[in-house]
# Entry
Amino acid sequence: MVTLVDNINDMSIATGTNYTAKDFKSDADVRWCAGCGGYSILAQAQRVLAGLGIPKERIVFVSGIGCSSRFPYYMDVYGFHSIHGRALPIASGIKVSRPELSVWVATGDGDCMSIGGNHFIHTLRRNIDINILMFNNEVYALTKGQASPTSKVGQITKTTQLGSIDNQFNPVGLALGSGGTFVARTFDADVKHMQYLYERAAAHKGTAFVEIYTNCVVFNDSTFSEFTDRETKKERTVLLEHGKPLIYGVNNDKGIKLDGFTPVAVSLDDGIHSVDDLLVHNEKDSTLAFILANMTYSDTLPRPYGVFQAIDKPRYEENIHLQIQDQIKIKGEGNLQKLLLGDEYWEIKN
Amino acid sequence: MDKKLISIDEVTIRFAGDSGDGMQLCGTQFSDTSAAFGQEVNTFPDYPSEIRAPEGTLYGVSAYQVHVGNRNINTPGDRIDVLVAMNASSLKVSLKNVIKGGILIVNRAGFVEKQLKLAKYESNPLVDNSLNEYSVIDIDITAKVQEILKGTTLTPKHISRTKNIFALGFSYWLYSLPLAQTEKWLQKKFGKKPAIFEANMMVLKAGYEYGENSEDIKYRYKINKADLAPGNYRNITGNEAAALGLIAAAQKANLPLFLGSYPITPATEILHHLSGHKNFSVVHLQAEDEIAGIASAIGAAYAGSLSSTSTSGPGLALKVEALGLAVMLEIPLVIVDVMRAGPSTGLPTKTEQSDLNLAIYGRHGEAPIPVIAAQSASDCFQMAFEASRIALKYMTPVILLTDGYLGQSTEPWRVPDVSTLPDLTPVFHTEKGYQPYHRNPDTLARDWAIPGTPGLEHRIGGLEKEDLTGNVSHDTANHEKMVHYRQDKVDGITQDIPPCEILGEQEGDLLVLAWGSSYGAIKTAYEKLREEGKKLSYLHLKYLNPLPADLGDVLKRFKRILLPEINLGQLANIIRSKYLINIEQFNKVQGTTFKSYEIEEKVNEMLEKGGN
# Structure
């Protein structure tokens, strides 16, 4: 049946997609703190979306509650600022009912990993084609500084005055465990890499999860500085690139090799190891993705970032619409009168 | 043999047996036959809550009650006139509701030592004279079907499974009903297995002939056709009717239908039915929890679907925060709450009217939501359609209250001609200069623009909205204005709903006021009392928020008002506080709806006592 929604979709076919980043800036003043990592995340999103070739009216940003969740107000696309933790099921309803829309979710470590944790795992399980940008600042910032599910053990916050005693969630590991088909990590300060991941996420069919280490200047300043500062970044991070060996270090003199299933750091200058010994990244290898995700909170190994996994799996919204098309083919377009009568009706005559 | 044919107006038959005895089939076949014959019918299935209870046990009894008659059949029957009991446990469980002098049709083979023990009988009730007050028709049905099907290719297990068909055939004879409807059904079911079809037909006919030929049986009965409006009829449960109402509404609105839902007793069949009608383009999401059920429905509503979620009390409690969001967003959404006995897990399979307060008041902030209630199984269709109409016209979530009793019970439904259903097509805003919170001056509904509309990109959410623009606003004067808009919008629906329809005198001494599934029992009692010449009036409310505009005036025209509810007085309190009048409550919370005799007794007691 042709619905009113089909008529709306027809309207958008004629519109151009010749945009600049400015076309994606809304009139609203950005109200994040000066120095917040959110500014960079927003700017890259505006830049990348301008180049995707998707009509603006077909893009929807959904958010929950938290600093990150103000995001939709700043984007001149369709925006939905919802309630705490529920951005993903709302986005799921949008995408499943309207697969033609490009649906994005801006969320944070509290919104997505804590109150919205159940929705997170099930959205990834269904592999609904939604792009999730999770600002991870390892703290509840909008409520002014409490420990979050990604806060470090020992972290001092207003609710953990003697140090946090909760273990830290590993969002990438959780995403993989939930069957996430596109799982990646980047940093607010790494503008180019962030743009690259946004493009990859947009192109990926299925749920794309991008964890973005985001600095909170007020409540958790510099928590990621070892991974983002010029002096330490090269030593403390390793970039995952499909088909390339895992090399890191200021002079690209270190690498990761697999000892059984255990990743170990080796020196390429020790006269024993060469590049050929190193682990070569493969985005299609789910076992490897778990191993790499497990490096996350290691004291001795560099923090991996990039695309951990990019695989193809069926998507809920495509399959449900395929089932609908199949049923229409088999049974014919639904006839309401026949449906209401059912198989076992009888007639009462005058 | 000549049998005396007795004409009666109505009968309540309960088919009871072990879970595997096919009693649900017996019940539905009997009611289909009776309805197709032209009688009025109302039924209620009574399943054990265990999925596969051990054989022969008291808690494994499965029953199906059918009430048929030639007029005023609104309930599955207060008391049982005829009990078909396939084993000892089913007799024990049901006997207390059988009228004295009632007929017991028992399968003798189900009363051997093992079964008597499982039923906790110390002696066999078929021989110990304990059933002397009843008219017992004692047949060894197991032996009968073995004898009838001897020499056929059927296995002993298959043969034993036809016992229910024998009982059904006998019941048809006893109430002078034709076999044709069941023959048609068997043909359809076993069309590809002629041996099984033939065997079942042999047994069905043998059951019928047993009545004709048995010397012990001296009477048979006849119920005339009811005076039904001409048209096409079918049997339907409340849950299926609600699902069909939503599909019909979406078709009439030219919108896709979305259901986001989580399985919960006794509402799950709505999810079953909607997920099974894919060729009507129904998109469903079986969500990870109740919250995701409504949240996904909110997302789909925002994107332009007629959107719905189905649940029961514990689920509605979980959806409360999202309901507040839907109020703030002012988007159309239908929430079907099939109420069950609470609080907490409560009695999941038992009915109650105790979510009314939650539906009307259960949100933080000033968050008005229209609440309507269905009065019978088939009425769930009309009310689901009506909930959709209100949701789309007023851009608001609407809660439809049904209950476990309505959801499971069946009654014949005169299927509407779909061309007579009103058009519900909304208007999507497409012109430039869109203001998300600009309102229709008549309905106060805001303008609706959906994603995909070029040039109308806008942001909405749970933060308070500025009037017209929909921008986030922390201005407290604006907040007050918006709170009033939202309230006035819902209050204004009162202009768009039918006025009170009072049965009986339009003013007088006693008005029975009720809502929801109490309708059947009260209507039956009302008709009976009126026939006896009693003076009383009856008003059944289907719109609970807002209430009909003339309700206050109507109530003031009666000296006394009786309000029966399956709760501790939730509507009574609402009526009292709104109209400052006295309400006499009549409450019951025993997991079932009222019996009509309970209403009769209560009304008679009030009429006898007179005045306040």
